[in-house]
Amino acid sequence: MFSNEPVVKVKDAVISQEDRSVLDKISFEIEKGELIFLVGRTGSGKSSLLKTLYADLPLRLGEITVAGSELYGIKKSKVPALRRKLGIIFQDFQLFHDRTVAENIFFVMKATGWKERSLMKARLAELLMKVGMGSVDNKYPHQLSGGEQQRVVIARAMVNEPVLLIADEPTGNLDPEVSEGIFKLFLEINNSGTAILMATHNYDLIKNHPARILKCEDGHLIDSKIQEVELKSIFY
Question: Which helix (H) or strand (E) holds 144?
């Protein structure tokens, strides 16, 4: 459907948070199957940029197209169709604690138009196997470790085979060994053709897995594809 088109196209976009500009006139593209790290100090605009990409914050100036949807002036009724093409992963998991793993994933399926129970069950089993969590469907989130919960969150984000996975600090609450395992799961997803944009403060991930970097700094976006990105100012 999006054969040769970039998954994300951003041109002269102004990213705002509560009517205050946090990133000014930024431009970049994300190709199908790319893996990109998004870095920057706390408050530099990383989360605001991600929220704008999945239409949680309005785009006030400039042009952004995500998975074929233009975001400037997008109607609320069009947002669910956009999000069906995306996977969104948060640092704090955002699982329903009073529902089992299966119920958490079925909730997303129902919200995105799945109706056939047998198909839902088959997809659930496939997703949990993919993330190495094949036997947890009847467990509750509090019965799982942080790393296990994040694997469930990744499974939930992959329900509709998204063209783009947006991850906001997905390893922020996890210890280094668990973080590495979670990132390897992201690499598997990326290798199967899904583009990934991951905001992270994890220097070891960036050092051990070189990839393109977008850095938010002083209201601007620096792209390692165009110029060298200095990381010391963030991590040291």
Answer: none
User: pTM surpassing 0.70?
Assistant: yes
- Overall average pLDDT of the 93-104 stretch: 94
Amino acid at 4: N
CB neighbour class for 192 (10 Å; exposed up to 12, middle 13-18, buried from 19):
exposed
Separation of alpha carbons 72 and 61, rounded Å: 8
pLDDT value of position 92: 83
Instruction: Read off the pLDDT band of 3 (50, 70, 90).
Output: low
Give me the pLDDT at residue 231, please: 84
User: N- to C-terminal Cα distance for the chain?
Assistant: 43
- Cα–Cα distance measured from residue 106 to residue 124, given in angstroms and rounded to the nearest whole number: 8
At residue 210, the 3 state secondary structure works out as: coil
Classify strands 195-199 and 164-168 as parallel, antiparallel or unpaired.
parallel
Residue 193 has what DSSP assignment? T
Give dist(CA 61, CA 58) in Å, integer.
9
Res. 1: pLDDT tops 60: no
Mean pLDDT along residues 159-178: 92
Amino acid code (one letter) for 176: P
* Residue 224: CB atoms within 10 Å: 17
Residues 6+ apart with CB under 8 A from 64: 8, 9, 10, 11, 13, 52, 53, 70, 71, 72
pLDDT reading at 164 higher than 60? yes
C-alpha neighbours within 13 Å on the C-beta side of residue 232: 1
Neighbours of 26 (CB within 10 A): 22
Distant-in-sequence, close-in-space partners of 113: CB < 8 Å, separation ≥ 6: 84
